[in-house]
Design goal:
Elements lengths: L2 H13 L3 H4 L7 H6 L10 H12 L17 H12 L6 E7 L2 H13 L8 H14 L5 E2 L6 E6 L4 E6 L2 E9 L33 H13 L3 E6 L7 E15 L8 H9 L4 E9 L1 H9 L4 E9 L5 H9 L5 E5 L12 E15 L2 E8 L5 H6 L5 E2 L2 H5 L3 E11 L11
Parallel strand pairs: 1-2, 1-3, 7-14
Antiparallel strand pairs: 3-4, 5-7, 5-8, 6-7, 9-12, 9-14, 10-11, 10-13, 11-12
Helix pairs in contact: 1-4, 5-7
The structure holds zinc ion (2 copies).
Amino acid sequence: MTGAENLDDVVAVAEDHDLVEKLSGRPICDRCLGRLFGKVSTGLDNLSRGRAIRESLGIEKGTECWLCEGLFDEIEKFSKLVDKEMEKAEFETFLIGSRIDPEVENREESLWAELNLQQFEAAKSEINREVGKILEAKPGLEVNFENPDVVAVIDTMFDHVEFNINPIFVYGRYKKSARDIPQTTWQCLSCWGKGCEKCNNTGREFATSVEEIIGTPLLEETESEGFSFHGAGREDVDVRMLGNGRPFVLQLSRPKKRTTDFEKVQSKINESKVVEVTSLQPSNRQKIIEIKGARYPKSYKAIVEFASPVQEQKLKEVVRSFHSKEVAQQTPQRVVRRRADKVRKRKILGFQASLREDKTAELLIKAEAGTYIKELVDGDEGRTKPSLAGSLGVDCRVKFLDVIEIHDEVGSDGEEL
Ligand SMILES: [Zn+2]
Ligand SMILES: [Zn+2]
């Protein structure tokens, strides 16, 4: 169909609504007139719809539109306001939203009802679309309704634009080779961040954290305003994270740059010597849910000390008895203040031991997500059953613990070990 035939359809629909009589005394601009039938036919703009209706039906045009009071003469101005905000960040996709005078919205709603219209378009939607069209004409910019990089909301009454930059997400895996770095920043337990003698006025319990070592270079590179770190579970401060590394997603808020030289950032992070990242890549919000909800089994290496000498033969026998065994772990005393006190059942998937000296052994343990390894070894005064200490009949404790592999091809809830 040609444009002219489409306009005939629009005029035909408009003819059925007594427009001349009902609009008399309420002058209306072409855009507002066309918008009353904005969803009749396609491939037309509201200006040409309005003009055609006016000419065919002989509707008079006053000096100022009763409905919009000149709002649509300001589209060019609104697009310039948005354009100015857009200079503040690099992006490719955007979406326009708007707030318009509620009086205009009331007038158009009452007119729809009064004229018994069904195929109208709202003023707001026209503003959004028309401003979007102007900006989309700029090279490299594209409107995106599902997942835009930025959203500009125009307040047409105050000529103000709220410019929202959506976050970006970076996936990676980290290894941690130090025993005094927590995954996330801890406030000083004595002053809760205010700064005191105990924390040397730093306000924190540990000088740095995995999230800071990873987040700061990425924050600088993307010129973001902040970040939040989401790990697939966490290890204790004194536990090293080795092997294939732990998956994480870093969320960066209000980034001015959305593309990153990952290789450069990776080597910057790895200069820390204590945290090493691999596989840095663009990610999304969905990935956070995925790694937070996962239940990955993990493999550990532990160095344990016995209170009295243990025979290698006995140790190997006891360890073998743990294969595929379920252990019942009441919430450990060291975390019970932070966690619900309940009994969790966890399966030990593999357990090997070799004696180093008569009172020291190296253990290799593979266990379900959420198994408390230190308590599996020392028994936590009977709160974990069975335990290595209980089965051997000798007190023992974990001296050093490392996560040596995260088996993330299967599923975990990210609970701590
Ligand atoms: Zn108007
Ligand atoms: Zn302090």
